[in-house]
Amino acid sequence: MSSIWSRGDRTGRVEEALLMLEGQRIIDGLEIRASEDKPYRVRVPAGIVHLDEDEASMFALGAVVGAFGGVARRQG
User: Fold this and answer.
1) CB atoms within 10 A of CB 55
2) Most buried one in 34, 35, 55, 74, CB count within 10 A?
3) Burial 29-51 (b: 16+ CB within 10 A, else e)
């Protein structure tokens, strides 16, 4: 079985998902400070959002659905 993820652990997959969102310009920036309780700092137009791993994982899912949900539902 193959995977699109290059990193196998959950933390790596969350970081990779956020990096992909940044690469697609869905988020404006990302900073990871591993030593903090909420290590993920995601920059969006409203400001910087501080997230822990669980919050970052749900944020990534929501961002993908928000960005591509309409395209996926189009019938053509």
Assistant:
1) 15
2) 55
3) ebeeeeeeeebbbbeeeeeeeeb
- The angle that helices 10-23 and 53-73 make with each other, rounded to 10 degrees, is 50
The number of residues making up the chain comes to: 76
For 12-71, the pLDDT digits (tens) are 999 999 999 999 999 999 999 999 999 999 999 999 999 999 999 999 999 999 998 888
pTM above 0.70, yes or no: yes
Task: List, in order, residues 6 or more apart from 15 with CB less than 8 Å away.
Answer: 7, 32, 40
Q: In angstroms, rounded to a whole number, what is the distance separating the alpha carbons of residues 47 and 76?
A: 36
Residue 19, classified by CB atoms within 10 Å of its CB into exposed (0-12), middle (13-18) or buried (19+), is middle
